[in-house]
Specification:
The structure holds two protein chains of two kinds. In chain A, about 30% of the residues lie in helices and about 20% in strands. By secondary structure, chain A is an alpha+beta fold. In chain A, the strands form five sheets. Chain A has a seven-stranded antiparallel sheet, sandwiched between helices. In chain B, helix 4 (about 135-150) crosses helix 5 (about 165-180). Chain B is α+β, with helices and mostly antiparallel strands. The mean pLDDT of chain B is about 90. In chain B, the strands form nine sheets. In chain B, strands 13, 14, 15, 20, 23, 24, 31, 34 and 35 form a nine-stranded mixed sheet that branches. A six-stranded mixed sheet of chain B has the order 3-2-1-4-11-12. Chain B has a four-stranded parallel sheet with strand order 6-5-9-10, with helices on both faces. Chain B contains 16 helices and 35 strands. Chain B is about 30% helix and about 25% strand. The chains are: A alpha+beta, B alpha+beta. At the A-B interface, helix 2, helix 3, helix 8, helix 9 and helix 10 of A face helix 3, helix 4 and helix 12 of B.
């Protein structure tokens, strides 16, 4: 008997016979396989060329772009290939291309056109991400589009570069481009180029990047056309359908393996850039029946009053990303991935903001809370496959100033809490020093940072006892101390310190929360390393965190301190700025962790002797600093301690 | 000339004498790695040989398996986690995989566990000034811990030590006092380049390689001398350039691996022979196909090399990209019924199903056997009999409704399509047009698989070199002897900076000349620098620096050359932006003996096939292909496809619609016949 999916009764794709396959996909199985990988390669080749030629570091180092191939309007813009670039863009691409082309008018398209748009409410993500679409015609028919969305250095508005938590409406945010032609029939449209370059800063860098992108689209068009010429338009359109069906089927089968049920969870963004009266909730109700799921975001807070919002397209994208993490982590994303999933998004929330007041810039902070809420909901049913929380935030820091000789300098994303913990999984302890679940990129070298700006990085290392304990331990909190050698001003954008973002799963503990602090220049002018223990913060100025009012150290019982009380933090020479990122969540019962593995953690400084007893019930003897190989586990004492811990539960 | 390629399974010793190539294959032995090398050398004879060139994957294997000596790592206090952090990024295909771990991270398998990575109180600023003096008492306490833990070597990498080595050198003295004589590498000597992580991991690997290679190299040299060898023993580095073994051991991170690069160097030699300077090099091995480029007669080289994902070392290395389409690549069925090839591989052990060594997964080799391309009795010179039934059984066991014919032909064609896509990608990355390039097909299985890519790729032609199965090893006898050095200094190139740049080059050149022997005047000096447009986070490497003294007039030329190189690589030009020099490089190229390809005399040989074969699964009906012996062909012979050309270690498959012509040194040139489509 043929295997069928339980919920739909449809024949699985792999069991289709040659005739049925040909009928459904207008090509044979070999052609479908080759075209499936061909679509992936087309976007990969586009990315390779973009990465080779792009000017701006944000494209090179953070892959802050996405390339796609989409089917024509008649195929409802089905998207068989999205590049493996920044995760945040992935699930917005199909809708943003559809919205853009539909508004522009598919009937107006002709060969050689490039359509451009950047309005987050139409195309998702934020205003610096310009979407470029190029139609591909074969024998006079529109057979598909090749598309590229990429972060640009500036789109005008009140903050250079745009990164800020305090802009309050779309007018401050910068230039909004509704869909319009950038090229018509291969010729540049003067008024569109002028509109852009009359409104942006750093035009001399953006111009060549935009030219590069247009050249990229030509490459994509050529590759797709070659493909159509070799295999025929019908086969290509059929294969697009095949690839998307295959992704949908994989997701459906994965969902079927999860028990039916309804689970609710929520997570929070600390506040907005106006005040700290409101923590923004992201609420998820996850319903799973057979091979389908619904994610209902009703109960999510209203949109924020400053530009930390995301749009509904971002919410949808994040749902797709979360389901990929949980159910289908390794296969390429397509528009079919989301097919078995319904997303209910009420309008005007922090993850579905509306213009003109629901300004959008740090959209990922809200959707990080969303991915956390979905992972929390899934953790209630997944058992071993549950994924613990990460450090939760981009924790971006930008600084600037002027050198004594009058030269301005900037430091962008180099000195904040950008790198932090992952959550533990069934696979083992988690990594530390990663970007958050929806980002990926290359961290700047300390030595490069110090050449770019008058700063010395005093410390960038893990903080003991901050990781969520578990049978598998979460990643640790990371402390980064930067010593500012010249007067400086700082943009701090920390938004996830109020509650632990690194939630534990399966009995694992939460990671500790971090924070941001400042130390004024030392009176004696001598630079010292500072510890990261409870008593090391008394003389610090707290910038943000959930902190003990006396010690200023992170504390669950303390109070939230709001970063926005100073719109711009100013420091004098030899001031030290500290970021501590949140620890990642643990997986499984820490009292079950093998005492030997706890000893190794003590040896390596991830856990202190005290922490081993408190968090794991393991009694380690010896001096981890001076005689790391001389540590021992007191097994009897450990047994007793663990027994009493279990009793206390 | 002798070359030896120490692989995981076999140690191949290759001899070239009077244009004749011979090989001795000896099983490798991780316990006594020198023994098979000596055995192979003994079989081929060492007397009168001018050079013995050595390439090995021993260092890489030690790193990958973590069978490593125990070492300590000293760095600036607050930064010992640079080795678990790397450059942070995750592989793109693991972006939504929470199960992925950084292979060298503390949560997986660190090269140096965290407790042996110790912070030292000291701090330099990027201008070389001292923010915090070296605290010797604190340093001694850290060294005492390393002594208590009985480390066998120490790597030292302090922040900004590429600018000033004083603290690192003092730490070495203290380490000698506390730990006694053991191998120590300083980042300021090993690889004085900016960006601490790559410098640190290079320094760590350097100490490890000192411990891995020192005894081995000494033993090898002694035993070769005992056999009567009186020439030079050279080690090949990651770019397959050669160094006398004593010099190699001074910076052994360079010789951590030398396998794949040798094939590219061999292609560069072939390029000279054929007067065809632009080659796409495709080496079909057991586990993967390695693709690299030769442009203008030189391999394209990178300034860094990854031992594992993001485990970076600052070694010049030939840029090689791998795609999972080797002879042992496993054929599988995806969840939705696609036939897939690789990336999993049956390797050499158990190997393809048809080897009969217990492998039951079908592989590309099994597909070729079932198609009739491989001769079951003539494989690897008859060394191994292939079992068609086992191959068939392996394909029949796949869980798919596809008939056997499609399983086999899909596997073969998909492997070819994957290689073709990788070729397109590497061409795009380097901004070259494949239509200007010939594709060299080597590795034992290369000539069997790669002609199929001619149907998918717009390359000039495919070239099958003589002895494609030994072609990589011959690369060791085609390489230059190169002494090289590099160091970093951030200098915005403008008026008044010539002195700084000149001093950097002079210091390096003087040191290299001392090492080569100051009296030699036959060396070629190559200078270059890695620069960046001010504000960019990465460098554009290998901008050529003119010969002669560097003065104020040279600086504008460096800037101009940077812009030229940037435009050539990336297509844009930013003359309004300042150019910052970051790393400066010098190479001294010493003339050395290289392999010469023997000209093939045209002779009146018949091109009558030995017999006609039936090839299955490529078309609906079996194809009838002529089978030729390569050695009976002579310069100018033409063989029309479909045809199979056999030689001892390889099989070439000329596709229908293609024609193979034998060239001047016996190379097969495969082109599509006019009108074929």
């Amino acid at each position: 008997m043929e295997a069928t999916t339980v919920s739909t009764g449809a024949t699985l794709i792999r069991d289709l016979d040659a005739n049925a396959f040909l009928q459904r996909y207008r090509c044979d199985r070999f052609t479908a396989t080759v075209l499936a990988s061909r679509f992936g390669y087309v976007v990969e080749h586009m990315c390779s060329q973009l990465l080779t030629t792009a000017f701006s570091p944000i494209l090179r180092d953070f892959y802050d772009f996405a390339a796609t191939v989409t089917g024509p309007p008649s195929a409802d813009y089905a998207t068989p290939a999205v590049s493996n670039s920044i995760i945040l863009f992935t699930g917005t691409m199909t809708d943003s291309v559809r919205n853009t082309v539909e508004e522009y008018g598919p009937a107006r398209l002709e060969p050689g056109d490039v359509i451009v748009a950047n309005d987050p409410y139409r195309t998702g993500t934020h205003i610096n991400d310009l979407l470029f679409c190029r139609p591909v015609f074969h024998a006079g028919e529109l057979v598909g589009l090749v598309n590229l969305k990429a972060h640009h250095l500036d789109m005008g508005g009140s903050v250079p570069g745009g990164f800020s938590a305090t802009k309050t409406n779309v007018y401050e945010n910068g230039l909004v481009l509704s869909p319009r032609a950038l090229y018509r029939a291969g010729r540049p449209v003067q008024e569109t180029w002028s509109l852009i370059f009359d409104n942006v800063r750093f035009g001399s860098f953006m111009f060549p990047d935009m030219q590069t992108i247009c050249a990229n689209l030509e490459l994509g068009e050529r590759l797709l056309l070659e493909t159509v010429e070799r295999y025929g338009a019908e086969a290509v359109l059929g294969a697009i359908e095949y690839v998307c069906d295959a992704a949908a089927e994989r997701m459906t089968l994965a969902l079927e393996a999860v028990p039916d049920g309804i689970w609710e969870a929520e997570d929070f963004v600390d506040c907005d850039g106006i005040d700290d009266t409101e923590a923004y909730r992201v609420h998820v109700r996850l319903t799973k029946r057979g091979g389908r799921a619904e994610v209902d975001l009703s109960g999510t807070s209203r949109q924020a009053r400053s530009c930390i919002n995301g749009t509904a397209l971002d919410a949808k994208s994040t749902v797709g990303t979360a389901f990929k993490y949980v159910l289908d982590p390794r296969t390429p994303f397509t528009s079919g991935t989301l097919r078995p999933i319904d997303v209910v998004v009420p309008p005007g929330t922090i993850v579905s903001a509306l213009p003109p007041d629901g300004a959008v810039f740090l959209y990922w902070e809200g959707t990080q809370a969303l991915i956390a809420a979905i992972l929390r909901a899934f953790a209630q049913v997944l058992g071993d496959a549950a994924i613990a929380g990460d450090h939760g935030s981009a924790n971006l820091h930008n600084a600037g100033g002027v050198l004594p000789n009058g030269t301005p300098w900037v430091s962008v994303g180099q000195c904040g809490g950008e790198q932090g913990a992952y959550g533990a999984t069934v696979d083992g302890d988690a990594d530390t020093f990663t970007l958050s679940y929806q980002a990926n990129g290359i961290a700047p070298a300390v030595e490069a940072t110090e050449n770019d700006a008058p700063v010395a990085m005093l410390r960038h290392e893990i903080v003991p006892d901050t990781a969520g304990p578990g049978y598998h331990r979460g990643g640790s909190g990371v402390v980064r101390d930067s010593l500012w050698l010249q007067p400086a001003h700082h943009y701090a954008m920390p938004l996830r310190f109020r509650v632990p973002s690194g939630f534990g799963v399966n009995g694992g503990g939460d990671g500790e929360t971090g924070g941001v602090w400042l130390w004024e220049p030392p009176a004696d002018g001598v630079v010292r390393q500072r510890g990261a223990g409870e008593d090391d913060y008394r003389d610090a100025v707290p910038v943000t965190g959930h902190l003990d009012p006396e010690t200023h150290a992170p504390s669950r019982s303390g109070e939230y301190v709001w970063f926005g009380r100073e719109p711009l933090w100013r420091t004098q020479p030899l001031a030290v700025l500290r970021y501590v990122s949140n620890g990642g969540g643990g997986w499984g019962d820490p009292l079950e962790r093998e005492p030997e593995r706890v000893k190794v953690d003590v040896r390596d400084g991830y856990v202190s002797v005290t922490g081993a007893a408190r968090d794991y019930g393991v009694v380690v003897t010896g001096d981890p600093d001076d005689d790391p190989e001389g540590l021992a586990v007191d097994l009897e004492a450990t047994e007793r301690l663990r027994a009493s811990r279990r009793e206390q539960r | 000339m002798l070359g030896v390629d120490v692989g995981g399974t076999f140690t191949d010793v290759v001899s070239v004498r009077d244009g004749r190539i011979e090989v001795a294959k000896v099983p490798s032995d991780p316990a006594t790695p020198a023994a098979p090398v000596i055995e192979g050398a003994r079989r081929l004879g060492v007397e009168g040989r001018p050079v013995f060139n050595h390439a090995s994957t021993m260092g890489l294997n030690a790193v990958i398996t973590r069978r490593l000596p125990k070492i300590g790592f000293l760095t600036t206090e607050g930064h010992r986690d640079m080795l678990t952090m790397g450059t942070v990024w995750r592989p793109l295909d693991a972006q939504t995989d929470a199960g992925w771990r950084r292979s060298f991270g503390d949560a997986a398998r660190p090269l140096v566990p965290r407790y042996l990575r110790r912070g030292v109180t000291e701090r330099l600023l990027p201008d070389g000034s001292v923010l915090t003096p070296l605290d010797e008492e604190q340093a001694r306490r850290q060294l005492a811990v390393l002594a208590r833990c009985r480390v066998e070597g120490v790597a030292i990498c302090l922040l900004n030590a590429y600018v000033d080595a004083t603290h690192e050198k003092r730490l070495r003295e203290l380490a000698r006092e506390v730990l006694g004589e053991l191998p120590i590498s300083l980042s300021s000597e090993t690889s004085p380049l900016a960006k601490e992580y790559a410098r640190a991991s290079t320094t760590v690997v350097d100490v490890l390689m000192k411990l891995v290679y020192a005894d081995y190299a000494t033993e090898l040299d002694r035993e070769l001398r005992d056999l009567g060898f009186a020439g030079e023993l050279n080690f090949a580095d990651c770019a397959a350039t050669l160094l006398p073994w004593e010099a190699a051991l001074e910076q052994p991170f360079r010789i951590v691996v030398a396998g794949p690069a040798a094939g590219t160097v061999s292609c560069a030699r072939l390029a000279e022979t054929l007067a065809d300077g632009n080659l796409i090099c495709c080496d079909v091995g057991g586990t993967s196909t390695d693709v690299s480029l030769v442009r203008d007669f030189r391999p394209i080289v990178s300034n860094t090399f990854e031992l594992e994902h993001d485990l970076v070392i600052n070694a010049l290395s030939t840029e090689v990209r791998s795609v999972g389409a080797g002879g042992g690549s496993i054929v599988s069925i995806s969840a939705t019924g696609d036939v897939l090839v690789g990336p999993a591989s049956a390797g050499a052990d158990p190997g393809p199903a048809c080897y009969g060594r217990g492998g039951d997964a079908p592989t590309l080799t099994d597909a070729c056997l079932l198609m009739g391309l491989l001769d079951p009795d003539g494989f690897a010179g008859g060394a191994l009999r292939l079992d068609v039934e086992l191959a068939r059984a392996a394909f029949e066991a796949l869980d798919t409704p596809l008939p056997l014919a499609q399983r086999v032909s899909f596997a073969y064609r998909i492997a070819a399509a994957n290689v073709a896509e990788e070729v397109i990608d590497i061409a795009i990355r380097h901004g070259v047009d494949p239509r200007d390039f010939s594709l060299v097909a080597y590795g034992a299985a290369g000539p069997m698989l790669l002609p199929a890519t001619l149907e998918l790729l717009h390359v000039k032609r495919i070239v099958v070199p003589p002895h494609p199965g030994l072609f990589s090893a011959v690369g060791l006898l085609s390489a230059d002897l190169v002494y090289s050095d590099s160091r970093s200094a951030y200098v915005v190139l403008g008026p008044g900076t010539a002195g700084t740049v000149a001093a950097v080059f002079e210091e390096m050149e003087e040191r290299l000349r001392r090492r080569v022997g100051a009296d030699r005047d036959d060396v070629e000096i190559r200078r270059s620098f890695d620069g960046r447009l001010y504000g960019q986070s990465w460098e554009t490497p290998f901008v050529a620096v003119p010969e002669g003294p560097i003065d104020e007039e040279t600086i504008p030329e460096l800037v101009e050359r940077f812009h030229d190189e940037y435009e050539r690589r990336f297509g844009n030009r930013f003359p309004m932006l300042p150019v910052q020099g970051v790393t400066y490089r010098v190479q001294l190229v010493v003339p050395t003996d290289k392999v010469e390809y023997a000209r093939l005399e045209p002779r009146d040989a018949s091109t009558a096939p030995r017999r006609t074969l039936e090839l299955r699964y490529l078309a609906d009906e079996p194809l009838h292909a002529a089978e030729h012996e390569r050695e009976t062909l002579s310069s100018g012979s033409r063989v029309e496809g479909p045809a199979v050309i056999r030689e001892a270690l390889s099989t070439t498959f000329v596709y229908p619609g293609q024609v193979a012509t034998v060239g001047g040194v016996g190379e097969l040139v495969i082109e599509r016949t006019a009108g074929a489509d």
